[in-house]
Specification:
Shape: globular
Distance between the termini: 52 Å
Number of helices: 12
Strand order of the largest sheet: 1-2-3-8
Oligomer: single chain
Helix content: 55-70%
Structural class: alpha+beta
CATH topology of one domain: MetI-like fold
Length: about 400
């Protein structure tokens, strides 16, 4: 009798486990039903309008030019190649922006905590200015107010006779692989392996004897000497072609178009302001007793910050820093405002208008940004686990 009562109660709404399963099943059915409704409604509307679906359009010829492409491209190439070019351009501006925003953000975050009044206030003014102006306005400012008013190629700003800045972009030397390229790559890989082994040996030596080792200078020497020996033995890995003014424009070299410059500067300046506050809060989260203990051991302010404060602050800095990296990658889609050929402007703009394959084009574009964001999150989560403090 008791077993029968227990069994009947297990299917009652008063049982928390039964309610949990019931609500999950209802939610799953609702999500599947909504998905099927949207899919069926989309297919019906496409059939009524005579629009064919599928990804076969990717094999069609694009028929338009692209201002910047990291791989070879002609107007007769397919939409699939246009997709690759848009993806590479998005990754390019995201990678450059993340690197420079991180460096500038860390400098500003530390500067805001400086005991020097002028340095601290300048950092504060920068942070409060750039983080409170929408990124699109900053992109438009750098593009229309700073870069486009620059002089033309004939009167461009000459930097060391190798870099030329004009209203058509930043022209710089372009490297082409030479005979010593393979040997140079092998040398760099050997230098990286040697540096890793040296760091591990130095850490074990420090744990065993307490004697420190200059890992930075030793690693720098390894990373410079081994590739330098490769260059001396097998020749230069690159053949550099400098831009030269011919007629009304430069010929040769590689150009960073004004759209890319404006987008990179704006996203770097905007994101660095937020990273600076993250760094400042991370440093402030470390107990002041850590600084006093380091000073009592004879460490100066610089080594204390690098070896004591920053390593402990990273566990607070990394999670919100990941969010800023994601924001920068997604904000790169604002490139459409100035015509930089990224995924949104090139693929979800021009290709969509020409083909009319709205669902397929938008689905591909959304999938790309989702994949980029997930990749950044996975990489940062892995790094966060590596630096996490391990309690004994």
């Amino acid at each position: 009798m008791q077993n029968q009562i227990g069994t009947s109660r297990s299917f009652s709404l008063s049982d928390p486990r039964f309610r949990a399963w019931l609500f999950q099943i209802i939610t799953l059915v609702a999500v599947v039903s909504m998905g099927w409704f949207l899919f069926d409604n989309t297919q019906t509307n496409l059939q009524h309008r005579g629009i064919t679906s599928g990804f076969g359009f990717l094999e069609n010829s694009a028929g338009f030019g692209i201002a910047q492409h990291l791989i070879s491209y002609t107007e007769s190439d397919t939409y699939a190649r246009v997709f690759v070019i848009g993806l590479l351009n998005t990754l390019l501006v995201s990678a450059i922006g993340i690197v420079f925003a991180t460096l500038l953000g860390f400098i500003l975050g530390v500067a805001r905590l400086s005991s020097n009044w002028m340095v601290s206030k300048l950092a504060t003014v920068y942070i409060e200015t750039f983080r409170n102006i929408p990124p699109l306005l900053q992109i438009l400012f750098w593009y229309f107010a700073v870069l486009l008013p620059l002089p033309g190629p004939r009167n461009s700003l000459n930097i060391a006779d190798s870099f030329f800045l004009s209203n058509r972009g930043l022209y710089m030397p372009e490297g082409h692989t030479a005979d010593g390229f393979v040997a140079f790559v092998v040398a760099v890989l050997l230098a990286i392996v040697g540096t890793v082994l040296m760091v591990r040996w130095a850490n074990k030596r420090f744990e065993a004897t307490g004697v420190p080792f200059h890992k930075f200078w030793a690693g720098l020497a390894i990373m410079v000497l081994i590739p330098a020996i490769s260059v001396l033995a097998f020749g230069s890995p690159f053949h550099w072609v400098a831009p030269a003014l011919k007629g009304f424009n430069f010929v040769g070299g590689w150009v960073m178009i004004p759209e890319l410059l404006a987008l990179t500067i704006a996203l770097t300046a905007y994101t660095a302001a937020f990273i600076a506050e993250i760094v400042r809060s991370g440093i402030k989260s470390v107990s002041h007793g850590q600084t006093e203990a380091a000073h009592s051991l004879g460490l100066r302010n610089g080594p204390t910050l690098r070896k004591v404060i920053i390593p402990q602050a990273l566990r607070v800095i990394i999670p919100p820093l990941t969010s800023q990296y994601l924001n920068l990658a997604k904000n790169s889609s604002l490139a459409a405002g100035i015509g930089y050929p990224d995924m949104v402007s090139l693929f979800a703009g021009t290709v969509l208008n020409q083909t009319g394959q709205a669902i397929e084009v938008i689905a591909i574009t959304m999938s790309v940004y989702l994949a980029i964001s997930i990749s950044i999150s996975l990489l940062m989560n892995w790094y966060n686990k590596r630096i996490a403090l391990i309690e004994r």
